[in-house]
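In this supplementary section we document a worked example of the pipeline. Step one takes a protein sequence of length 305 as its only input; no multiple sequence alignment statistics are reported here. Step two produces a three-dimensional model, which step three serialises into structure tokens for compact storage. The input and output of this example are shown verbatim.
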Amino acid sequence: MAIDTAALRPSAGIPSTTGVASRRPPRRSAKRMLRKLPVRLLITLLVVVEVYPIVWLVLGSFKTQNEFFAKPTWALPESFSFDNYVAAWTTGNLANNLLNSILVTVPSLFFMIVLGVAAAYALEVMVWKGRNTVLLAFVAGIMIPGQMILVPLFTVYFRTGLTNSLWPLIITYTVMGLPLTVFLMAAYFRAIPREVFEASTLDGAGMVKSFFLIGVPMMRNAIITIALVEFFSVWNDLLIALTFTTKSELATVQVGLLNFSDEYGSTDYGPLFAAISINVVGMLVLYLFLNKQIMTGLASGSLKG
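The serialised model returned by step three reads:
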């Protein structure tokens, strides 16, 4: 029995679906790639803009003084010697500057967080007359420029005999950081349902016990987020530290970087780049280590309020 092969062939009037189906996925994937191409190019550009200065800074920390003047800025160092880092740590007194920054930043953050969280709890959770006025007073403190109060503060510190210590820096950083800390912590406390604190009150817990056993644990990520924001603000400050630092032994990291330039304007770029690299890389490591807690804290503050 003969088989009619013409009947098995697709007719001329009906297009074949197999060829169209096989061609559609590549077209769709190509269109999808073209749609995502501008976004990927933008992300690549942002990564280059962020990473290139850090790479350039680290590579510059290995260059000698002659390489900075005789070669282009994008040239690689001739050798990867750690002489600049040794000079920055010893001659530049970077070790003492780092210690001073830690001695200033840690107490400032402690006072800011303790006082700020307690004030925000009292302003948002506790009900008392005049709390809105007090909150507005804290918010108004954010709008006062810090440069306006430096001279009066220096006069007060000089008359009280605090100028030859780190206490002027600690007190100033704490006071100037409290308004923003109270405002942000109040917004985070506003996102917590009031029923949680009411249930603890029904169980016999007082306001102080509810603060330490319920409020603080629920605000852990928010506290880490605000503490890191204030940490960068205090650590990277130059104006306040330069104003209240009366001795070279009390200089912080940012003030200590000025020691790499002499009175005639000459700058030792190798040790300076090494000192900046130590500072920047340390901050990046800290941020990457706490990145998850920061994102969680920022998300928790956007739920309500």
